[in-house]
Design a protein that fits this description.
By secondary structure, this protein is of the alpha/beta class. It has two domains: 1-52, 2-Layer Sandwich (Signal recognition particle alu RNA binding heterodimer, srp9/1); 55-127, Signal recognition particle alu RNA binding heterodimer, srp9/1 (2-Layer Sandwich). It has two helices and eight strands; from the N terminus they run βαββββαβββ. The chain is globular.
Amino acid sequence: MKIKDIIIDCRDPEVLAAFWAEVLDRPVAARIGPFIWLVRGEGPGLGFQRVDAPKAGKNRVHFDVGAADPAAERERLEALGARYLPEYAGGGFLVMADPEGNEFCVIPEGPFELDDEGRADYLPCAL
């Protein structure tokens, strides 16, 4: 078996699909009932399903998105509607939230080091 699609439950799939379409450079491919699908890239498909319940608590699963320069990417993501989550800064990862509060990490495209506690080392101290 393999993962075919990842579905994100959300209150407003139009807003969330538009956000992730810009982040991933994958336009909307289809709208079917409560679902909006992005164009399939490499790997699993990405869909957004309208649900009535709001997000509650920290995600148990999150995306790691790769960027050539994660610190520089923060400004673009915030302009698209993401929010920086400084409460996770101690781990050395750039942790952001999408417009509905779903956490995701922006990590380097290439390798980076983790210490024995699982903290990353790729961000400038002033972030």
